[in-house]
Every structure is written in structure tokens, then in C-alpha cells.
């Protein structure tokens, strides 16, 4: 439970940063662990930082001191709110505290909590203060010694950061273990786990020849599902040595999977703790998407050992220093494992689905924010994914050699310290020999820049002119924006001869407007711009449907080729929505050409022929009309299905009999199979549902099974009712003991495009397997439903009321997870007056709840502003 807020919560500002008054070079922790009562003794060696006479102030959250000693003697102390304050006379002291906490009542899943019979911790950002009194800020770096005592039968495994140093048996069936972490670290990287766990073990030999013991810890029955994660870990360790020259530094590296977790995973030093959905994978229960996500998250957390742990953040405003850079690193890693082109398309699709709407809405904030009420609300797509794009742009501007020199400089210079985004950029400038003064606006200005590109050609004199204009939209608190540095890769093709007229070049657009002249343009040029998505911006061009179709068939940059097709589809759908009708022929022809191009990778084809999502279409429009968007998109899907039915069927047949193999080729085949099945069903072909049901039943892997289930779950036709109901039922019973797969069952139904989805979701919220206490389950049903544009925005407002009811209930258990689900309601400005009023009314109702958390208060009130 959370306490009612007595006073208005305080805003934390970046400009107010001051160094810590006291440092804590060493800490000894002693845990007497039990779910119903855990006693925590802490001995902090503290050192005054600079000349001042301020007291020692230790953060706490819900803690009551049972004892406080200074240098071995009872000491005077006072509470200031939740913090413990002690006046200290000297320069160094040993401060001991003792508190008691109740892990089994911790529903927020921050601090020490209970999950699936095990005890585990989550401290980032400010969870350590729920375990013990401490200066809970990332610029206080401490060496930890941790002793844990627990019941041996119930918790045979005791893990913490660093290396194990001693263990033994105690009285009354208890045992203990002690771990030391030699690397000074901020308290947000502290972790412990006590549980009945088994390990999938391996060793890794580092570049300098040290042997590291690797262990992935799960319930015994889940061990067979850990090979993929273990393999990904080894690949990540080798990759970071090869690509960034970064070697692992401890003798052990452990990962523990837990079922109840607020986000993806956590990079605690030497003891990563993961949401089990990012560890467990086998062909029967995990899709290709899940396999990829497991590898990406394992890599991400591992890479944090350098970008995050060895070099950490000075304060939480610098969060993107570690997250943006580490996302960039994990994206590069994944690109190296398979198709870099498809990976780039997926990353951009993710950015557009999550970050662009955030940047264009009430919660927009810079990559380096200036203030927050609750830091948990800033673990956003902007910090992570836009932050990664900012790093990528610097890598593009510097080129690979200088970028590597710059990261070497950064790691060397700041190893063992708490750094800032500014420190990182300064290294880029120094090693890259570039001036990034104006580029720094990417850290301080929110909002997605918009570029207008107009190409004019004078046929007679062989000249062409490209006019580029940029603007950055106003965002909350930032009405006026300065022009930014936009690295745009571009190229000109000749429409008649299908050749390259002007080779690819990198243009740095730095002014509000610039004009570039090209010579020797002897035929009508077609512009390929923002190739590889070199800048995270929105580009408007004056390209015709014919130009876009040309690029979708000819561009040699796979991303630009995909993008041309998407733009053609988007232009067509926006015209259909706003003008009531549109010519489908260019899209059908372009898709037909893509399908029949033998040179293309099937995984790429599958991405290219998918229509933009309902939400992305909505994002192009001043006012979103969910039902019309849905109907127009379905109409185009149906026509694509019908017009190209033979191609979809032969494509489907060509991959139908494949056996499961997790490889780029295997993944590509399954991807195209699901897409083809979707189009065959969209065409209305009478055998569509049977084909889907047959795929559902005969699948030897979850990708095919869930793909078929999704097709059936979306089927509007009464004729498919039998197959749809049967497949959902079979799926449920087959996987009723597997929480991660049940999440898919809830999510598939919550995302259904059927007209009765809202009713179905309301029933599912009363299903015995539904619970708000498990974040994965809450997100699978409520989170998924809230991004189902058609169902959530049902005109009567019932979707809004349902989600608001759930958020109010969830906030009482887990404010952090509840607050993450606010943004769909906060998009009210983009909807017509009646819907907007209903959405606002629900936000007002949430805000009026007594005892609303700080997390929700911040998100909801910003959404109403
Ligand atoms: N550092 C973790 C990661 O990205 C995530 C921590 C999220 N913390 C939070 N309070 N939301 O790898
Ligand atoms: Zn991270």
C-alpha cells in the first residue's frame, strides 16, 4: 500500500545538482531473510565530502530505524520526512543502522520483494531506500560486502553482487553466504536473490584469458528453456570485446529470472535480474520475436557492465547516458546477428510507434530532462530509443574509426566514475575532431523535427535543386525551438535509366532552410532521403506515387526501399480516410513487384508488404477517426489479398512445410508465412479460416501457432467463429500452466480488431487467470487493449472507463506499472470533442482518487495540462 501524500510532492531539478555531502566508500550489509520479516543491518563507513558542516542525510522509504550507532555507540538521530538525519562531528565515521522490512507485502516490486517463492531485489532508480537507509543517488560509489542468512530448505541458493567469498550452515535449518563486490558502485546496482533455483552453467574465457563462471538461474523445470539466453550471453561477451574492446571484470556473472518484474531486466553488477519473459525460450512457447528480444535484452544488460556500471550516471537526468548508449549497442549487436536491414526497420517501427507519439504529446521531454516529480516515469522511449538515435547520429557524423576512438576515450577517462551526457559528447568532439555545440540541442530540445524536402529539376541545363527546411514543434515548456543538426543521407536516382545520378552523400542540415545544387542531372531525378533513417525525423517530400513505387522497387538502401513503400501506403490510406476514396492500384502494383523480386530476403519482403498500423495512420492526421481508419485499412488489405491471392498462396505453400529452425532464414520464412496467411484471410477466401486453423494445429513452433491464432482472433467473419473459439480454447488449455504463454493468450484477444473486443476484454479482466499483481499480465490485457485504437476508442467511452478503473486499482498495488499505462488516455487532444471530453473525464476521475501515487499524479496531471 502507498501512503496518502501529506504534502505536495517536490520537483527535482537538474539545475539544482550539488555533489554529495558525504561519501560512503564501504558498506557491509547483513540480511536475515524471510518473506514475512527481514532484518537488515547496515554498517556504512562515511567520509565528509569537502569542507562543510551539514549532517549526514540517509534516504529511506517506509523505514523505521530500530537502532542507530555511530562508531559503535548509540547516537542521536532524527527523521526528516522519510530520511534519517545524523549530526556527525568528524571527517570519517562508521554509521550502523538496523531496520525491518516485509518482502511479502511489497507489491510495488521495488526494493526487496517476493516472487514465485523466491526473494529478490530491484533498486533502480530509488528502490535501495526501501531496503536500508542510504544516500540513494547514483554518484555515491561504494564497495559492498553482503551477508545473507536464510532458511536452507526454502532458499538453498543465496546470490549477491560480485564474487562469493564464504558460506556455511547456521542454527535452526538456516544457512548463510557472503559476497564481496570489489567494484565501487552506486546503490541502484545492488542486488540479492534467495531462492530455490537451478543454474544453466557455462564458462567464458575473456580476451586476456580470464575464466568467468556464467550461470542462468531459474526454477528447475525451466532449465531447458535457458540455452538461448546463455548462448546470447556468450555472444554478447565476445561482441563487446571485439567491437568496443570491453572485457568482463568479475569471476562470476549470474542472471536470475523472476516472474514478477516491473520492466524488462536490470543490470545489477554481476547479478542481472530479469523478467522471465526475456530469459525463457523454447520453440513451443516462444515466438521468433521473443527469441530476438531475449538475445537483445541479455546483450543490453550485459553491455551495461561498461556503459552503466563501470561508468555510471552522475544523476538521474543523465539516464540516457547509459540507456541511450546501451540501446544503441544492443541494436548494433542484434544487427550483427542477422539482417541489419530488417533490424533497422524494426527499430524505426518501434521508435515511430512509441517515441514519436510521446514526443508529440503532453509527456514530451528532452533526452536529458530538466525536471521530474518521479524518476520512474522517465524510463521512456525518449530516454532509451531517441537517446539511441542521438548516439547513432554521432556515430554517423564521426564515422566508425573515430567513433570507436571516442568511446575508448570515454570509457578510459570516466571508468569508475559517475558521468554526464556532456562528458560523453565532449569525448565525441575530442576524439572525432568535430564541433558538436549545435548538435547538443538533441539533448535539450524535445519534439520530433520535421523536414520538408523539395526537389526541382530544370531538364535543360542538367541541374537540380534540393530545398531542405526544418522545424521543431513546440512541446510542453518549450514553445520556441532552434534549428538542429540533422544528418541526412541522400541520393538521386534517374527515373528513366534506373541508375544512380548522384551517389549517396551525408548532408548535415544545420539551418532552418538550405538549398543544395546538383550538376549533371541529365534526366528526371528521384530523391532518396534519410537513407538508413540517418536522422530520427519526419520527412515530407513532394514525391509522387510513381516516384515512391520506383524507389520501392529500385532503391539500393533497404531501409529507404521499405520507407518508400510505407510512404506510398500511408499516402494512399490518408487519402482514403480524409477524402473518402483513394486509388489502390499503385500500392497493389508495388506490393506485387516486391513479392515477385527473387533477389529480396523474405524477412525484408514480409516487413515491406505490411500496411502501416492503425495508430501510425492516426498519427498522420490532425484528428484521429479510429473507425474510418480501421475500415479503410481493412479495405486496402482485402484488395491486396484479392488482387494478389495467387502470389500469397504460392508464397504460403513455399514455406508451409518448413521445420522449425532458429536462423535468419527460418525466421524469414515464418514471417512471410504469417503475413501471407493474414492476406489470404483478409481476401475473404472461404478456406482462409481452415488454413489458419490447420496451421494452428500442426505448428511445431510458437511463431506459427500464435500467427495463426492472431489471424483467427482478428477474423470478423461469423463463418470463422468455430475455428476462432476452438483455437483460443485449445491454446488456453495447452498452456494453462505457463504464465508467459497465457500472457500471449490475453494479449492476442486484447489486440483483436473484432468489433466485440471491448466486451471480450471486460470478461477477460474477470477471468480467474487475470491479476493486476503481475505486471506482465496487467500489460498483456490492459496495456495491449489501450493501444488497440479501434477498441479502446469505442465512441461510447466504455473503453476509457474500463482502463481508468483498472489503473485506479493497479495504482494501489504498483504505481510504477500503473503510470506506464497512462499515455493512451493522455492522447485526448488528437480526438474529436466528444471522445476528448470522455478521455479527460477519466483522467480527472483518476486524479481525484485519494492517495493517488506520485507516479500517477505526475503522468495524469501532465496529460490534462
Ligand atoms: N536499467 C534497466 C535497463 O534498462 C531498467 C531499469 C528500469 N527502472 C525503472 N525504474 N523503470 O536495463
Ligand atoms: Zn538499460
Automatic annotation (TrEMBL):
Q: Which cofactors does this protein require?
A: Zn(2+)
Top-rank taxon of the source lineage equals Bacteria
Per UniProt, which keywords does this protein have? Aminopeptidase, Hydrolase, Metal-binding, Metalloprotease, Protease, Zinc
Primary enzyme class: hydrolase
Question: GO molecular function of the protein, one example?
Answer: alanyl aminopeptidase activity
Q: Where is the Aminopeptidase N-like N-terminal domain?
A: 80-189
Pfam families reported for this sequence: DUF3458 (PF11940), DUF3458_C (PF17432), Peptidase_M1 (PF01433), Peptidase_M1_N (PF17900)
Q: Where is the Peptidase M1 alanyl aminopeptidase C-terminal domain?
A: 546-864
SUPFAM superfamilies given in the database record: Leukotriene A4 hydrolase N-terminal domain (SSF63737), Metalloproteases ('zincins'), catalytic domain (SSF55486)
Reactions performed catalytically: Release of an N-terminal amino acid, Xaa-|-Yaa- from a peptide, amide or arylamide. Xaa is preferably Ala, but may be most amino acids including Pro (slow action). When a terminal hydrophobic residue is followed by a prolyl residue, the two may be released as an intact Xaa-Pro dipeptide
NCBIfam families given for it? Answer: pepN_proteo
What family does this chain come from, according to its entry?
A: Belongs to the peptidase M1 family.
Its recorded name reads Aminopeptidase N
